[in-house]
Amino acid sequence: MSTATVSDTTPRLSHRLTAARLPRWAPAGIAAASIAVGCGIGAAAGLKSHIQWGLISALLFVLAGYAVSASVEGRRQAKDRFATSLVWVSFICAVVPLVSLTVYTVQQGIGAINGDFLTHSMKGVVATLSPDGGIYHAIIGTIEQVLLATLIAAPIGLLTAVYLVEYGRGRLAKAVTFFVDVMTGIPSVVAGLFVLSLWNIALGFEYSGFSGSLALAILMMPVVVRSTEEMLKLVPNELREASYALGVPRWKTILRIVLPTAVGGITTGVMLAVARITGETAPVMMLVFGADFINSDPFNGPQQSLPLYIWQQYSQINNDFGYQRAWGAALVLIAFVMGLNLIARGIARWRSPKGGH
């Protein structure tokens, strides 16, 4: 092949490799056009739900993105853009309901949030006739019940995970793993019925915040076990082997080497488990029983909690005051759970190798 032929072929190959690409603004432009066309189709068809408009726009975005990419970049690149479009549509479908729920809760509940609402109980308040009253007794009950459940479930879950990772062999370990998997998917009402039958009916203990904490601990334990187990598995075996080579016994290796290495992930798992049980209603409804007054003793008599308070206030039909209080309590509960998740993420980032430096 002559030098002239090579020089004539090179520009053509370079042009083929670089020219057949959509500009960077193409996905955004296709998305905007799809939204406009989807809304137009929805309006022309008389569809009243904006969700239907959004679904039409999402379908048009995926199809139009594939068609435009196939005509310009070829089918191989079009398939890649098709998969990317599906990922973006799935992400939006997951985020939009969460954002809508949060925004709607803030809109409905922000009007009820004030100093009196956060520092007063419902004692002496006629819920259907007065806008007074608050959630102070429910906040105290929720904090105490969740704290007791954590004190019960966290040590048991931690020790169970240590056994499964460091000692578990044979049929016993398989049985424990099986029951942990079963408990992970157990409905909360089943945990409440179990504690009600054993603790309250069989043993004769009264309704109390501690009874609810027992059910919450049952729900929390498998989450702690699973998260702690995964964190312990991430600890390099070289650390254990080096400790054993120095003559350190296994229990001391676990206590001094393994657990400190995984403490960040373990703490994050416990915090996420706490956030998971904070909003449980069914066990609290059966075991705590609810109260309009402040009861700071979880071992003596009925207590209140935020999920139960929300249900009680919202279940009062045609009661605008109750609806307002319910939305205010829901906003406080969401803020509480969100705070726990932020704390868990902060701990995980602080304990990460990058954060440590």
UniProtKB/TrEMBL annotation:
<protein>
    <recommendedName>
        <fullName>Phosphate transport system permease protein PstA</fullName>
    </recommendedName>
</protein>
<keyword id="KW-1133">Transmembrane helix</keyword>
<keyword id="KW-0813">Transport</keyword>
<feature type="transmembrane region" description="Helical">
    <location>
        <begin position="177"/>
        <end position="201"/>
    </location>
</feature>
<dbReference type="InterPro" id="IPR000515">
    <property type="entry name" value="MetI-like"/>
</dbReference>
<comment type="similarity">
    <text>Belongs to the binding-protein-dependent transport system permease family. CysTW subfamily.</text>
</comment>
<feature type="transmembrane region" description="Helical">
    <location>
        <begin position="82"/>
        <end position="104"/>
    </location>
</feature>
<keyword id="KW-1003">Cell membrane</keyword>
<dbReference type="GO" id="GO:0035435">
    <property type="term" value="P:phosphate ion transmembrane transport"/>
</dbReference>
<feature type="transmembrane region" description="Helical">
    <location>
        <begin position="146"/>
        <end position="165"/>
    </location>
</feature>
<dbReference type="Pfam" id="PF00528">
    <property type="entry name" value="BPD_transp_1"/>
</dbReference>
<feature type="transmembrane region" description="Helical">
    <location>
        <begin position="257"/>
        <end position="277"/>
    </location>
</feature>
<keyword id="KW-0472">Membrane</keyword>
<dbReference type="InterPro" id="IPR051408">
    <property type="entry name" value="Phosphate_transprt_permease"/>
</dbReference>
<dbReference type="GO" id="GO:0005886">
    <property type="term" value="C:plasma membrane"/>
</dbReference>
<keyword id="KW-0812">Transmembrane</keyword>
<dbReference type="InterPro" id="IPR005672">
    <property type="entry name" value="Phosphate_PstA"/>
</dbReference>
<feature type="domain" description="ABC transmembrane type-1">
    <location>
        <begin position="139"/>
        <end position="344"/>
    </location>
</feature>
<feature type="transmembrane region" description="Helical">
    <location>
        <begin position="51"/>
        <end position="70"/>
    </location>
</feature>
<feature type="transmembrane region" description="Helical">
    <location>
        <begin position="25"/>
        <end position="45"/>
    </location>
</feature>
<feature type="transmembrane region" description="Helical">
    <location>
        <begin position="207"/>
        <end position="225"/>
    </location>
</feature>
<comment type="function">
    <text>Part of the binding-protein-dependent transport system for phosphate; probably responsible for the translocation of the substrate across the membrane.</text>
</comment>
<feature type="transmembrane region" description="Helical">
    <location>
        <begin position="326"/>
        <end position="344"/>
    </location>
</feature>
<keyword id="KW-0592">Phosphate transport</keyword>
<dbReference type="InterPro" id="IPR035906">
    <property type="entry name" value="MetI-like_sf"/>
</dbReference>
<dbReference type="GO" id="GO:0005315">
    <property type="term" value="F:phosphate transmembrane transporter activity"/>
</dbReference>
